[in-house]
Specification:
It is a single chain. The chain has six helices and five strands. The protein is α/β, with parallel strands linked by helices. It has one domain: Rossmann fold.
Length: 139
């Protein structure tokens, strides 16, 4: 099974990974990809910082998120491909899942209420709406 782990470095990512480990959902037979999406810096910030510094920032952020994830997975005998992109997280995760022909997306949820989702939206809601792949949301 090809599984996309959508991670953001938050406590919700840690809960999701702990849930998978506690319920024996890690298997060396599966292929795992850990993916994080970073919001694009505002145009003025990118212009002031310059292309190289902005690229380094995105690289550092990707590694900051992926470092603990890869360590956790390694403790459970799992090696994952790690990827990160910049853009709208919900859209990028759904696109990655569909384009990469994944069998399952697993992600944590912040657990906002219905009113909060209505006002600001939710990455999990966007993934569920835009993804053709089954999604496991861990709260």
């Amino acid at each position: 099974m090809k599984i996309l782990l959508a991670v953001d470095g938050s406590t919700y990512t840690k809960k999701m990974l702990a849930y998978l480990a506690a319920n024996d959902l890690f298997s060396p037979k599966n292929e795992y990809t850990a993916f994080t999406a970073q919001l694009v810096l505002p145009t003025q910030a990118r212009a002031a910082l310059g292309k190289e510094l902005v690229h380094k920032y995105y690289e550092d952020e990707g590694q900051r998120v992926m470092g603990p994830v890869t360590k956790f997975l390694a403790r459970h005998g799992i090696t994952a491909t790690c990827l990160w992109k910049t853009g709208k997280p919900g859209e990028l995760i759904a696109k990655m899942a569909d384009d990469g022909k994944f069998d399952l997306v697993v992600m944590g949820s912040h657990g906002h209420g219905a009113l909060m989702n209505l006002v600001v939206g939710s990455v999990a809601t966007q993934v569920l709406a835009g993804c053709k792949v089954p999604v496991l949301v861990v709260r």
